[in-house]
Amino acid sequence: QLQLVESGGGLVQPGGSLTLSCTSSGSSLADYAIGWFRQAPGKGREGVSCIGTSGAIRVNADSVKGRFTISRDNAKNTVYLQMNSLKPEDTAVYYCYVGRLRSWGQGTQVTVSS
Predict the structure, then answer these.
(1) According to the model, what pLDDT value does residue 53 have?
(2) What does R_g of the chain's alpha carbons equal in angstroms?
(3) Alpha-carbon distance values, 95 to 36, 70, 75, 108, 114 (Å)
(4) How many CB atoms lie within 10 A of CB 101?
């Protein structure tokens, strides 16, 4: 059973940066493609970024292209989401997801506000 744990959220001013981390207990993430999703208040969950098992394939949503970077360190069993130039509309709960297992983490809150 793979359990995902996100961390790194917080309050940041517009234009600031945060790095989110996703790790797991019970199983290694190395065999799985990982996605980051987010859900803003009153809105549905949307895909932000995803990365293949080796890190060679990465896809970003248009809304975050040029600002967010997904990466992974399989030796540390961690997937990262580096978020730069944050905007108030990036405010949401951010989740990591393993599609093959339909497994979600508990989420981490990101708030962008002055």
Answers:
(1) 94
(2) 13
(3) 6, 13, 21, 7, 23
(4) 12
Interval 12-22: pLDDT, tens:
999 999 999 99
- Dihedral sign from CA coordinates of 19, 13, 40, 10: positive
d(CA 96, CA 60): 14
Q: Is the dihedral of CA 90, 95, 96, 97 positive or negative?
A: negative
User: Read out DSSP for 33-90?
Assistant: -EEEEEE-TTS-EEEEEEE-SSSS-EEE-GGGTTTEEEEEETTTTEEEEEE-S--GGG
Q: How far is residue 16's CA from residue 86's CA, in Å, rounded to a whole number?
A: 5
What region, left, alpha or beta, does residue 15 occupy, with left being phi > 0 and alpha being psi -120 to 50 degrees?
left
Planar angle of CA 103, 109, 113, nearest 5 degrees = 150
Q: How far apart are the first and last CA of the chain?
A: 40
